Amino acid sequence: MKCEETHAPNSNWVYVMLPSKKRMPLVTQRLRDPDVNPCLSESDASTRCLDENNYDKERCSTYFLRYKNCRRFWNSIVMQRRKNGVKPFMPTAAERDEILRAVGKMPY
User: Its family (predicted)?
Assistant: First the structure.
């Protein structure tokens, strides 16, 4: 599959040209990467809840809280690794699985 990067006119966005001629901003593409975003499943669950409940935020508050706690947990891990000089600051998906197994349960 051949992809091509292009810059949008008058913009700082980089678009990746997919073979199907669909454009996805590089930022969006990175946020969908499980190695970059540790809370991808929580984000998807909250979006799905909003879609299913006609965007009634009160019905999805538990999903929002879970996402917020997930971000807090992994942000604390990033800060700890940065303080200790461990790179990359965000653990990879495999490292995150090991961390969660060491904790023994979902901390969020």
Answer: Belongs to the CHCHD7 family.
3-state helix/strand/coil string of 1-62 = CCCEEEECCCCCCEEEECCCCCEEEHHHHHHCCCCCCCCHHHHHHHHHHHHHCCCCHHHHHH
By CB neighbour count within 10 A (0-12 exposed, 13-18 middle, 19+ buried), where does 101 fall?
A: exposed
pLDDT of residue 30: 80
Give Cα 35 distance to the centre of its chain: 8
- What is the pTM for the complete model shown? 0.71
User: CB within 8 A of 103, min separation 6: which ones?
Assistant: none
**What is the pLDDT at residue 34?**
83
| Largest Cα–Cα separation, the chain | 49
